[in-house]
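Standup notes, protein team

Yesterday: finished cleaning the Streptomyces siamensis set.
Today: Pyroglutamyl peptidase structure.
Blockers: none.

Input for Pyroglutamyl peptidase:
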Amino acid sequence: MAGLATAPTAGAGTAPGTAAAAPTAAASPTVEEQRLDRAAPQEILRRSGFDSVAPRFARALGDADSYAEAERLVDRQGARLWRRAVDRAQGRGPAGGDLSRDDDRPLYWARLGMTREIRSWEPEFGLSDSRRARLLDTLERTSRGQDTVRYPHGRNVRRILVTGFDPFTLDRDVRISNPSGATALALDGTVIETAHGPARVETVVFPVRWQDFTDGTVERTLRPHLPHVDLFTTVSQGRVGRFDVERTNGAWRGGFPDNLNVPVTGTVPVTDPASQPQWTSTTLPYAAIVAAPTGRFPVYDNTTVTEIPAGGSAPVVRPDGPTDGSTARAGGGGDYLSNEIAYRATLLRDRLGLHSSLPGGHVHTPVLQFGTGNTDPATGTVTDPEFVRNRLDIIAQARAILTVAADTSAAVSGTERRRD
């Protein structure tokens, strides 16, 4: 996922023409970046050929003789990393090693290698905190596919937008892969054939960090596209052995630590909090998705939430959704970042006036499990045949679920949603 519940199973720069702020010292690596030095991430990078990404980037960065040149370099190299990861996942170009092509982890660890290089870079021309932050933001955006969402013009191809997440809970097991991120890489730019014609899928990946969500990364990325797509699905890893279509999303952060080991508890922070609802709902065709034979994992319509009832003070689990006037404590997807991305995306849909016309919501994949005998991170290997098979099956079933959702939505609407 990027999380279910409290115990999950699984910048601005200097304006043109103004003087730059005084240069500052390089920053220390983040908690996320420090994990790079562990054996498993290094093996993942080596066995995919992505171990050369950060060193080459560092050399190129060292040759930059101005901030403008560095900006162009970071933009170009970030986009190149995303495209390389997508191409590898979809069988284009060299595999770079014996690690399965469907693996999302090389992208994650290579990106962290690049952000660590930016954080430690001290160019002769000087680099202010704000400009360093701007470079990091550019790299995050471009290497996650967030600025390369492109759909064909016209009414003959439907448009689907899908989001995934980075691996997480890495201090529990640094080998972890996230099937939602793998699904994003496998589906980006592909065409799904539906009973109502072709559907183009575009994908982006988000970090598992509370602060990025507070800063509006979800809304900034999705806002330009929601008015023009026919369907969207946020995806994350959820429960063992099952898919879930989450019916209701809650406006609450439950405090589980993110990939920086930062815990946050409280109401999901959004713009215009005075009009913020406690709950939002899926508009995906959940009944059709649950009924369809999409793959080997069962698919559930999950209606459970945790709320504080109106006038109450203690959380109550409700199997059939929230009651009137209640306060959210967990959506169907829990109280971590998977619930939050679902809440933010569907709230944005509603604030754009698209609730009745745009199918969208959240799908939880099964937990991606290592094979029998390979479950102990202290002694286990970074991959195994069952691990790969599980990930491929999850990706294939996610694609099938999207196909059902696109088919059903087209049949219900009867017309193409198009705002070119």
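Follow-up from PR in the comments: The longest strand covers residues 197-206.
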